[in-house]
Structure formats: structure tokens, C-alpha cells
Amino acid sequence: MEEPRPHEGVWIETENASSARRPRGAFLKRHWNAVWRLFFIQSSRNERTMDGLGLFAVLSPFLSKWARSREEGSSLARRHLGYFNAGLYLSSAVAGVVVNMEERRARGEAVTPERIDRTAAALSSVLAARANYFFDALLIPLGLTIASIFAIHGTYVGPVIFLVLYNYYHFQSRIGGYYRGVELGEGVGDAYVPRLFREERFVAGCAAFASGVFAALLFLKARSAGGAGFIAWGAALVAGSAVLRRRLSVVWSVVLVLFATALCLVIYGYVRLR
């Protein structure tokens, strides 16, 4: 039985978590059956448990090792089939923390099921918000903007850059997050996440710069493609989108703007052919 610690909590790296570190080769050999399942954690998303079934699939190779009896195994399965929503990228880290804590509980340490569930729920919301901002608001827009800039010049280098940039952080979050979760346990939030996306500000600056370059190139291409009238039409669409957004949803605003653009291009092409 471990001695109680006065400041024990979700963000404290425990001695047991630190001592669980092992070479990565041995780690992957032991956890490979769970690692490949991490990439399918959202494949069975539903309204009742969100990604709970996916988390259960990740943990299922270990359930028989953690349970001391058949009844305990059934209890473990029911517990880990509950609600789970940690997003796409850092759900792996939460799964690693659960594995760490369940292994310690199975060894007889004072880790209760309630404590495991509380820790997973607390980490899920925090890590999901951190990863969603970095990927959805910074990294993916940056990669798509770079790909679009190269596409304007008729080269396929842009999509390659996007895939390399995205998957570098994607695999770092998926596999690296699970590794750190198993290694650090409850201390993953304090010891790993602050250093996870070190280049966040740099990526944000690059995204802003790339957006400016793309807007300038788009302006030049529009001018050469359709002249001042084409640019004026684009400005009118931007203004129309802002007005429609106040009355309609984003989806319907986009639908109407695209429909108007398509109609304009058809009429413009017909007039030129005549």
C-alpha cells in the first residue's frame, strides 16, 4: 500500500509514475496491441458514450491482466464502456494515463476506480481543448494555406508539405501522448502537455503570414483572370457573407454565396462565348 501524499491530485507527477519509465522498444513491444487501436478510437462514436467504445477497445488487451476475478473483470469492462470524450489527438494521452493507473491499482496500490474515472474526466476536457486549438485553429489552416499557395502555381509540393507538417504533430500526439501517459500517469498534464506544442506561437505567426501571402496571390490571380470586375464581385461576396451571417446560419450563408458565384461564372462564360 502506498503512503498518502498531502498534495496528491490530477496534476501531480507521482513517484510510481516516474519509476514506470522503460525503453521505448520494450514499451512498443508490450503495448503494440493498444497503440494501433488508438488510430480507430473514434470509429465507433455515438451519441450516448461518444468515444467510450473506442477507449474500451484500446484498453481491452489489458483487462484480463488487471482483473483478479471474473466479477472484477466485468466491473472493469462496464466502467470503461462509459462516456469518454477527449477529442481526436490527445485521447491517446488519457488512455495512457488510465493504463498507468489501472496497472498500479492491479499491483495493490491505493488507486481507487473513482479516482481513475475522475482523473480521466478532468484530463479529457483540458487536453481536448488544448489539442483542438493547436490543430484546428493553427496547424491545419497553416498547412492548407501553404498547399493552396503552391496549388496556385501548379505544383504538388504544397500537399506534401501539408502531410509532413500535419503528421509530424499527429504522430507525436497519438503515439507520443500514449507513451507519456503510461510513463507519467497523473503527472502527464504538468510534465508533458506544457512541452507538447512548444512551437505554438511560431506556428500561429506562420499561419498569419501565410494567410497574408495567400490573400495577395489570390488578388493578383483574380485580377489577371477577370479584371477589376472579378475583384469587385469577390468583394461583394465577402460583404454579402457578412450580412447573410447575421440572418442565416453559416452553412446557408456559404451555400448562397457559392450558388451566386457559380451562377455568375456561368453567365460570364456564356457572355464571353457570344
Describe this entry's structure for a reader.
With about 270 residues, the protein is mainly alpha-helical. The chain has two domains: about 15-130 and about 170-195, no CATH class; about 220-274. About 75% of the residues lie in helices and about 0% in strands. The protein has ten helices and no strands. Helix 5 (about 90-105) runs antiparallel to helix 6 (about 115-150) and helix 6 (about 115-150) packs across helix 9. The longest helix has about 50 residues, at about 200-245. The N and C termini lie far apart (about 90 Å). Mean pLDDT is about 80; it is low at about 1-20.
The sequence of SSEs as H and E is: HHHHHHHHHH
Q: What general form does the structure show?
A: elongated
Supply the helix-strand structural class: mainly alpha
Report strand %. under 5%
Number of helices: 10
Number of domains: 2
Average pLDDT for all residues:
80
How helical, in percent, are the residues?
over 70%
Gyration radius from CA atoms, angstroms: 25 Å
* Secondary structure tally: strands: 0
Poorly predicted parts: 1-20
**N- and C-termini, Cα separation:** 88 Å
The major β-sheet equals: none
Q: Helices, strands, pairings?
A:
Blueprint: H1 15-18, H2 24-35, H3 52-66, H4 70-79, H5 91-106, H6 113-152, H7 157-184, H8 188-191, H9 200-247, H10 250-273
Helix pairs in contact: 3-5, 5-6, 5-7, 6-7, 6-9, 9-10
What's the gist of this structure?
Mean pLDDT is 80; it is low at 1-20.
Features of the shown structure:
single chain, 274 residues, mainly alpha, 10 helices, 0% strand, elongated, disordered N terminus
